[in-house]
Amino acid sequence: MAEISEEPPNPIPPQPQHTHQPSESTIRKAKPGLKRLTLTLSVLVSFIFAFPFLYKSVEIHRAPLPFREIDSLSSQIGSSNNHPSLSFPCHFQAIFVNFNNSNAETLESLIFDELTKLTSNTTSQCSTLSVKLVNSGPIWSLIGAVDFGNGDESVDEALAGVLGGEKVYSVVVVKGKSEEVKGVVGKYRHGWVVGRVSEVEAAERVAEMFVKVFVNGGKEEGFIHGEFMPVGADGRIVLSFNLLNSNPHDWVYDWDFQAIDDTLLAPIIKALGPVANISVESQVLYHTPKSSFSFWDDKRKGYIFSTKDLPFFVNSNEWHLDTSIAAGGRSKILQFVVYIPSAKECPLLLQLPNGEISKTNGFISPMWGGVIVWNPQGCLKDSESQHPIRQTISRQDLQKVFEVFMGQFRQLFGLKSDSHYFGSSGTYSLLASEKGFSEWELDFLARRHTCFNLHSCATTLGSLSRLVQSLPRMIIMDEIGKQVKYSLEAANLAQRNASLGLYDASAVSSRQARSLAEDAFFHPSIMSVSYYSFEHCFAVYSH
């Protein structure tokens, strides 16, 4: 087939390009004048003067924190609460009556050996020990005139009149003719041992009373962990006393709490003032059944609940105990409950693991409080009426209840609730104080809380320091800087007071140091940044 060729289309003729040639009238022939220079300089000067204000408007305010002082405090206090590097001087004196004065050096050597043996095996609160042996002089003469067979309370008061002037722990050893050796720890800062004892046995008893009782508070260890300290982060304790009527259709009981508060609780609160700021409140609740079950025992003629039922005894759904205004704060609330059972389970008795019935009919829950089951006299239902007559617990019964509460309160603070200490060298009777705590026990609590508070303060400030340095865009208010400064000052003051042997003053200062450190760390401005950081905002808005 023949191919048909077509002629190409006519090409488009090129268009002539026109270039714009400026005219001579539009060309500037002179250099820029003063007007433009003035305008440029004014803009530049305005920017220079406005730059500080612009920088200030976007600047992040960070109050200066003493990071070096915080690190120094952490290194001084130590990283472990069980081995604090605090210096508590403890002064002892041993007074021997009816011993041979020529053996004074031997007795002193034996006492130092026993002290070294005891302090090397256990953690001691006292890093500085000084022992003085007294076998002559006016004090020795006055003690020699004391009748140690006159009764423990009388002997305790007589020794207090002789030894109570100085803050020194004293042990009097009287060598007698009786084979029975008697050891007593008074309610002040002294104790005594009476009986036929040899020099070696006397040294062992003296050293054990010094270290195990006066220094460590009758405990094997001198310190306890922080989670078992019943004091709030702000140094406050709220004692909440609750009277629970399980079934008010059976009986309704009330109590004269104000009288107990004035006579029994006021001395305790005053004695524990250096350790914690304590406040008291009370309430009466109705329709508060327990959560656990009980069974009837014909032999004991009562309803029995065992120690295995204790975790289920407290009915958190029906017992509305947390009504305190401090419940939402950082104060520690200790609940003390008097539970009155209904007529269907009265009398209600607590059975111990050994099968015996508890004498106190109560129990404690660490860091929560204590419960006492109080059975009405005779357990007889007052009336079939739906509105029984309101009765008041007698003063005698109420005093017995609060004596049990006092023992529970001591246990919550880590002290013994019984009146005996069983040591390796013998048994010692512990005299009770009307304040609830003896003088040597208050010294022990002050030393222990000082160590814990300073350790907590150093840990909290160290965490705050690391947090601030890790977030350079975090705003640090001036209030936080002041709180950190005052916390460090209080901590340093507590250390100085501890080195001088001022136990109460060191406890107060350490409590302030811990409270201020907690206030700084949990400041609202810091918490908002910690839980809603800049990186979180950037991630949200970038998506």
From TrEMBL:
Main localization of the protein? Answer: endoplasmic reticulum
Return the InterPro entries for the record. Answer: PtdIno-glycan_biosynth_class_S
Annotated membrane-spanning segments are 37-55
Q: Is Glycoprotein included in the keywords of this UniProt record?
A: yes
Q: Which GO terms describe its cellular component?
A: GPI-anchor transamidase complex
Q: Which UniProt keywords apply?
A: Endoplasmic reticulum, Glycoprotein, GPI-anchor biosynthesis, Membrane, Transmembrane, Transmembrane helix
| Keyword Membrane appears in the UniProt entry | yes
Write out the GO biological process terms.
attachment of GPI anchor to protein; GPI anchor biosynthetic process
Top-rank taxon: Eukaryota
- Family annotation (PANTHER family): GPI TRANSAMIDASE COMPONENT PIG-S
- UniProt family annotation: Belongs to the PIGS family.
Q: What is this protein called?
A: GPI transamidase component PIG-S
Species lineage, top-down?
A: Eukaryota, Viridiplantae, Streptophyta, Embryophyta, Tracheophyta
